[in-house]
Design goal:
The structure is a single chain. It is built from 3 helices and 16 strands. By secondary structure, it is mainly beta. It is globular and about 45 Å long. It starts with 14 loop residues before the first strand and ends with a strand.
Length: about 270
């Protein structure tokens, strides 16, 4: 595949990204197909007025499933705002059939991010919001697509801008990742993985999943600067937990380990009828 030129991927406003919740099957990660981007590309450029614009419509809240990951051992987790916004009750799956109720939810007024709190969180992830990202960097998105354990392998494409309409109007910087592998048997939408982490090859989290474009094979994550600003505003102190290296051959079992250690958990939203 020829070297990626990020300018070729700039497109006009109008791409609609659907975030849905469903059920599906899970299996080990498949062998990665041919890559779509070369690694070791240039440093991700700063935001630009020419960045691709992604439009999503946020409708009335309804029962659904998402993903969250632990920031520290104090029971603080981060997820996507749209996963928990408008829910009458939110809980985290910590064992088969065992959900822990969320004690509090803090929504980011400017970004698709939310902080949820419980009594404790035994194993946080390692968060890296500072190290510069490069075009072609591999990312491994972990969570509960279609309500089941699953993961997707991607490469970083470019910056984009998320335009939200409906229940709230907002505009925020995001990052676009191109899919090159996923859980065997997982087809169609990745709904349910929203709020989950994207790990880099070193096993450090570089973003929060906020949207997808199934037709184009794209996943979008909150920009590291947005996450850092949100956590700083709340005086949240991330801690380093266990970390394992990810690659295209091992991201299936590595993702399973992150879920087993409760670094990454399923989020259940319930809306009163």
């Amino acid at each position: 595949m020829r070297r990626f030129d990020w300018l070729l991927y700039v497109s006009a406003l109008g791409l609609i990204v659907f975030v849905l919740f469903a059920q599906g099957d899970h299996a080990d990660a498949p062998e990665a197909p041919p890559t779509v981007l070369e690694t070791d590309g240039p440093t991700l450029p700063p935001p630009s007025p020419l960045d691709e614009q992604i439009l999503i419509q946020v409708d009335a809240p309804k029962d659904g499933i998402g993903t969250a990951f632990a920031l520290n051992r104090n029971g603080q987790w981060i997820t996507a705002r749209h996963v928990v916004d408008g829910c009458d009750s939110v809980s985290l799956l910590v064992a088969p059939g065992q959900y822990v109720p969320v004690e509090s939810i803090t929504l980011d007024p400017d970004h698709d991010l939310a902080l949820i709190s419980t009594g404790r969180s035994p194993n946080p992830v390692q968060l890296d919001l500072v190290t510069p990202l490069r075009i072609g960097t591999e990312g491994f998105h972990v969570g509960y697509p279609q309500g089941r354990p699953g993961e997707v392998a991607t490469r970083l494409m470019s910056r984009s801008k998320l335009i939200t309409r409906g229940r709230r109007d907002s505009s925020e910087p995001i990052l676009a990742w191109a899919e090159f592998g996923r859980t065997r048997g997982l087809e169609g939408t990745l709904g349910g993985i929203s709020g989950g982490p994207v790990f880099d090859a070193a096993g450090k989290v570089r973003g929060v999943i906020v949207a997808e474009s199934p037709r184009r094979g794209r996943i979008y994550t909150a920009a590291p600067s947005s996450i850092e600003t949100f956590l700083t505003s709340l005086n949240v102190s991330p801690e380093d937990g266990p970390a394992e290296a990810f690659d295209s051959e091992t991201y299936g079992p590595r993702s399973d380990n992150a879920r087993r250690l409760l670094q990454v958990v399923k989020v259940a939203c319930t809306v009163a009828s």
